[in-house]
């Protein structure tokens, strides 16, 4: 059978886990100051660029009433979700930034936000952008409703950033034996090499 021609415009996958990060590069704990957080990171969904390490989050002395998105390291994410064969749409890893309910997929979070929070004017961070550090909404508050953002940025794949987000999710969950080399550029956007 003929081997398909190589398409250099597509993402290259490298069969190594050593390239995956076991810490959150350039993410610091806003409570204790730990730099390049190791282990699970907790990102506030209602504050601009506010993160906690596992120890500070466990104590809940800092930021006790704000919804915090659980963010695994690249390595931990692939180890936890890579082998189960879930499609990106099936991952139930997102938290609602309005009511703090956890365990949503992108689709169920969209339905939830439309049904229960359609008239919320509070600016929040997108839990998917926070989790995968995509674009400016990985750190910045949304300029419009969460439902509108999810639908336009993550469900329609209208721009290169959203396509990279979708491919990153797919790579992390479907190609756990052939992990993508992924990095973040200076503004935190995901680069797939």
UniProtKB/TrEMBL annotation:
GO terms for molecular function: K63-linked polyubiquitin modification-dependent protein binding; protein kinase C binding; zinc ion binding. Residues 24-76 form the ZZ-type domain. Gene3D superfamilies: 3.30.60.90. InterPro entries: Autophagy_Rcpt_SigReg (IPR052260), Di19_Zn-bd (IPR008598), Znf_ZZ (IPR000433), Znf_ZZ_sf (IPR043145). GO terms for biological process: aggrephagy; endosome organization; mitophagy. It comes from the Eukaryota. PROSITE patterns: ZF_ZZ_1, ZF_ZZ_2. This is E3 ubiquitin-protein ligase KCMF1. Pfam families: zf-Di19 (PF05605), ZZ (PF00569). GO terms for cellular component: aggresome; amphisome. Belongs to the KCMF1 family. Keywords: Metal-binding, Zinc, Zinc-finger. SUPFAM superfamilies: RING/U-box. The keyword Acyltransferase does not apply.
């Amino acid at each position: 059978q003929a081997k398909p021609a190589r398409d250099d415009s597509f993402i290259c996958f490298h069969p190594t886990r050593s390239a995956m990060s076991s810490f959150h590069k350039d993410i610091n704990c806003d409570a204790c100051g730990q730099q390049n957080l190791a282990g699970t990171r907790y990102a506030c969904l209602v504050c601009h660029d506010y993160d906690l390490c596992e120890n500070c989050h466990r104590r809940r002395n800092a930021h006790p009433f704000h919804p915090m998105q659980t963010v695994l390291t690249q390595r931990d994410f692939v180890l936890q979700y890579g082998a189960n064969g879930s499609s990106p749409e099936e991952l139930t890893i997102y938290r609602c930034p309005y009511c703090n309910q956890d365990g949503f997929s992108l689709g169920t979070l969209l339905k939830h936000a439309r049904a229960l929070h359609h008239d919320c004017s509070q600016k929040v961070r997108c839990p998917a952008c926070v989790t995968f550090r995509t674009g400016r909404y990985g750190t910045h508050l949304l300029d419009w409703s969460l439902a509108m953002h999810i639908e336009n940025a993550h469900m329609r794949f209208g721009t290169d950033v959203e396509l990279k987000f979708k491919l990153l999710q797919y790579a992390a969950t479907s190609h756990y034996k052939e992990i993508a080399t992924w990095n973040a550029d200076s503004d935190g956007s995901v680069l797939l090499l």
